[in-house]
Write a structure and sequence with these properties.
Blueprint lengths: L2 E5 L3 H12 L3 E6 L2 H7 L5 E4 L5 H6 L7 E4 L6 H13 L5 E4 L3 H10 L3 E3 L1 H14 L3 E7 L2 E7 L17 E8 L2 E4 L12 E6 L1 H8 L3
Helix pairs in contact: 4-5
Length: 213
């Protein structure tokens, strides 16, 4: 079991903490506001009420032992998020993921020691745009020039073996068939109606398959 700390129990921080706990991970939630901690305490392993811009108090938590610390402090306290990130790096935290609110904030977080920054609003916007551009695809992640997507098997694929579908220029990484998931299916596996295919390929190849639906 990995150990995580999440600093800032706004909506984003609570979502991160609760979902980590649902994945079976040990989570420490940290916030200045005891009421916010009370709201999340039933769902996670432990909580700590403190101002994380005070280095001596943060040091007592021994956060350097954590697998990752997420700085999820809200937009009204950007200076606190930057200072907290700097303190965590100074204390030797091995992985710091910090929430940013714009490009300048992101650059500052990286400068003071964040290993990774993310902007949840930007990510939601990108995912929505992708869903609108690929309406027949259940889920999609861009990986450089390639796309990882989950798409319903078209009727034209029904009964055909994967090795017969090579001209679509896609790699089928898994097949979700009801409650069963076939990982790295062999070429002689036949596609059945209702299958969900997890595929990797160029966006044009993904669209070609989606257009068959």
């Amino acid at each position: 079991m990995a150990e995580f700390a999440v600093i800032g129990m706004g909506r984003f921080g609570r979502a991160v903490a609760r979902n980590l706990a649902l994945e079976g991970q040990a989570v420490l939630a940290i916030d200045r506001d005891p009421d916010r901690l009370d709201a999340v305490a039933p769902d996670i392993e432990s909580v700590a009420s403190m101002d994380t811009t005070q280095e001596e108090k943060v040091k007592d938590l021994r956060l350097h032992r954590m697998s990752c610390v997420v700085v999820a402090i809200g937009s009204r306290a950007t200076e606190a998020s930057i200072l907290t990130t700097a303190i965590l790096r100074e204390l030797g935290v091995g992985r710091i993921v910090a929430r940013s609110f714009d490009e300048k904030h992101a650059r500052l977080l990286l400068t003071v020691g964040a290993h990774e920054v993310l902007n949840p609003e930007d990510e939601i916007g990108r995912r929505l745009a992708t869903r609108l551009a690929f309406p027949d695809i259940f889920d999609l992640i861009k990986l450089g020039e390639a796309v990882l997507a989950e798409v319903e098997a078209p009727e034209a694929f029904d009964g055909r073996r994967l090795e017969e579908l090579h001209h679509y220029d896609l790699s089928v990484l898994a097949i979700r068939r009801g409650a069963e998931t076939l990982v790295k299916p062999a070429g002689d596996v036949a596609v059945a109606g209702g299958d969900l295919l997890v595929v990797l390929g160029h966006p044009d190849a993904i669209r070609q398959v989606a257009d068959l639906l």
